[in-house]
Amino acid sequence: MAPMGDNVVVSNIELEKLLSMKGGKGESSYANNSQAQAMHAKSMLHLLKETLDRVQLHGCSDDNEIPFVVVDLGCSCGNNTINVVDVIIKHIIKRYEALGFNPPEFSAFFSDLPSNDFNTLFQLLPPHLSNDNGGVSMEECLAANNHRSYFAAGVPGSFYRRLFPARSVDVFHSAFSLHWLSQVPECVVEKRSSAYNKGRVFIHGANESTANAYKKQFQRDLAGFLSARCVEMKRGGSMFLVCLGRTSVDPTDQGGAGLLFGTHFQDAWDDLVHEGLISSSKRDSFNIPVYAPSLQDFKEVVEENGSFVINKIEVFKGGSPLVVNKPDDAIEVGKAFANSCKSVSGVLVDAFIGDKLSEELFLRVQKRATAHAKVLLHQLQFFHIVASLSFPQSQ
Q: Transit peptide as a keyword (predicted)?
């Protein structure tokens, strides 16, 4: 059988326009496969609130007309971003009230790449409960869980570049996004390069040159992210970042990300090659643009960039990304693994080999994961780097 799907190519230029979590509300959508992220975020709330306590409250007076601005970078299209913005704003309101001041109005900007399913996100947003002209108090606003006490807007674009006016944002929040690179390093798919990732679709278990290319791309991207936020954040602002991380010093050991993209997912691609559905060169030109940094990788970039000081940074055990009702049911575990994988990489795979072959690929991922269900539940553990950043005191 002749190889299929070789006519679809995704260039790095197109990646920014294309990359997104699986939209909609279907079985493999991000909205229905982000419960683990929700649990991980909940377990980190105390660290988020510590960061929020550092934020300088502006306009503490009765005629405060400057809105307090909160931004979630890499918001995706599920409830998680709405929940965390709600937590941030309610915490800041309590700080104002503890000082005896009326809180200002709040603006929340949800930002992601243009391909993000903003429609699904906006449909999930509760209606705005205004305290203007309707005699609604802020207390009633807070008590109304099915409403929101902020003005919402979407901002499309890469967070590796400028997105907001200078000195306009009080709080930046970004969770489970910074491990996504702006591009696959070109040398990784260049056949003549020592970093050519032959036979693989991810850097887990790759050679040192490949891993270093990914590491350098991550460093460039994070430096660009910090430089942009340095201009956009207000002087008394703070930033809370959560990034998929690893505990190994070796960048070719990507930990949980390696098990998600470097085992059954990798084997499923090999199945397509062996069955003649795609060519080996087609497989080799696909790479997942993810890099899970070590704590040292992350710190080095922040310190070298010099725009921010690290108030707190740690590796946080996030647990398994698989949420299953019946852990002993291998079929359910296999399906959960395939859906989890598809929700974050399915859009890229669809664009690269087409919908039909993509469906075949994820069926094989599910079959392999089902056969290794017990091992997966035990071994698939994610670690996250959690960082609280603000400007140096002298600035």
A: no
